[in-house]
# Entry
Amino acid sequence: MRLSIIIVNYNVEHFLEQCLLSVQKACKGIESEVIVVDNASVDGSVEMVRSRFPEVRLIANPDNKGFSKANNQGIRQSSGDYVLLLNPDTVVEEETFSTCIQFMDQHPEAGGLGVRMLDGKGGFLPESKRGLPTPMVAFYKIFGLSRLFPRSERFNRYHLGHLDEFETHEVEILSGAYMFMRRKALDEVGLLDEDYFMYGEDIDLSYRLIKGGYKNYYTPETRIIHYKGESTKRTSINYVMVFYNAMRIFAKKHFSDDHAKYFGRLIELAIFVRALLSILKRFAQKVFHPLIDTLLLSTALLGISHLYAEYTGVIYDSRLLGIALPAYALVWVITAFLASAYEYPLKDRRKIQGVVIGTALILILYSLLPENYRFSRAIILLGTLAAGILFLVTNALWRALSPEAKSKEDAQRVYLVVGGTEERSRVQQMMVDLGIESRFIHEIDPEEGPALGERIRSTTEVYAADEVIFCAKDLSADRIIDLMSTLDSRRLDFKIAPPESLFIIGSNSKDNKGDLLALEMNSIAKPVNQRNKRILDFLSASFLLIIAPLFMWLQHRPVGFLRNGIRVLIGQRTWVGFYRDVAESQHLPDLRPGILAPDHGLVENQEQKKRSNLLYAKDYRVSADMDLILKNWRNLGLS
# Structure
């Protein structure tokens, strides 16, 4: 056996599928084996591997073992002369494995090999080649000097910025996304250190290979795409703490006591600074924008009321205005928030929806107020107009200040689909099914040979295309990577549609996780779904408790109905939740205990319950909750 490929997966079903499709092609003509170790995914990854890739050896862990332990599981069951640790959010070229085997055969002193990695926009990923994170190297990286001097041998030693990315080099540290290693070397220096749950294990093993007398290399002769960070959220505080804790473990293990203590203090400072910056960024994203809208809208409403008073001669109580106008502004901002208007990327239609809903709510509340607390409805209507205009203006300003807030509406985007006639039609239909009513250009056929790149470039310029979708059935991985590298990635986004798939994968930034268009993906873990579910619970529980004196006597358990209604209202329970007896073992998203369960009353065994839980978590719809509540309205008193 020449090559063993180990892939550790955690809840990235579609990325894993695309990765395995590329691995299949790269393994042709090579005596190889593929081992997937799944760390208790709940997204259908295990079922997908079993059905689509029966030749792959699958290790399905009942819980999340972590990256190091899971890789070691795969390595121990492998038998290849070479071992490759490969991330699931990658795409390899057809010649990647043969190129690496040839390189290692020609360099018997090599213990490990890394390759040129590109992000989802075709840009070079600097972690393709790295240096040892000594205390000073780590200091320069943590405090941003490596970014200020990216080509400096001293300040950017972490990413070896002084070394040409297009030349082969001896390096110190390999990337965990693609670690191609000699079995003999692994047998001598040992496997991954399982003290590292996630991050740092690649640095540790690379360093041990060097200490064992081997050399690590970087080669640009082959490339892979790495949709950086799909399995983990790299901007979160948790990521910062886990990553730098891994650095602390490494320092304690490999540096002297004095250096380790110095490094530990540096790490603690880094965690504090990065956590503070992360909190401030999240505050700006979540609170600052709505707060600014509230203040500006309150000021605008006050100005409108004064102008209206001058025009009509009607004078309103200043104390009443001081309470009512900020309250109106707050209602509009809250309804905009509930309409996901402050979720990135910012979309104007969400704010308009929030304004319309807010106006309706204000008018309802207005009609219920005593006469002496009312003032002109004209101010409310003028305020609605002001809110709409002001919200659009602040959205425009926010987009100008924050690149993350920018996004064209789907209907405004121009997509260029590159593939054969059959695949182009399939991809277009998939986009329609996804509800993306966009303009398509579909004349690009991959049979045009060397002129294909120029044809794509000129077409994107003429039609001002925003995104290029490559059909992997008709284009090889190395051809796709070539095109991504040569096209204008600053203006264009790229995605890949695997053959016979119901999803399209891409990434719009080297710092962002890969993004996914899939027919069935609408996870209950999404903030907008969590919020909508809570709104449904609150409103329905309020309504049912109001009519309880009449409605409760139609329940199978009247007292239980009252108790459950109160629990749902205050947020202790939810009307629809998981089957609790099997949910804990499935590692599903956090959800309040449910009164009803998905497919309530229809499932017969534990496996069906697990399947129902998985489908509910993976493809959530508020309408499905409403339908289940209506169908089981007499069972709302169950415990």
In short: The domain at 3-129+165-229 is CATH 3.90.550.10 (Spore Coat Polysaccharide Biosynthesis Protein SpsA; Chain A). The two ends are 57 Å apart (CA to CA).
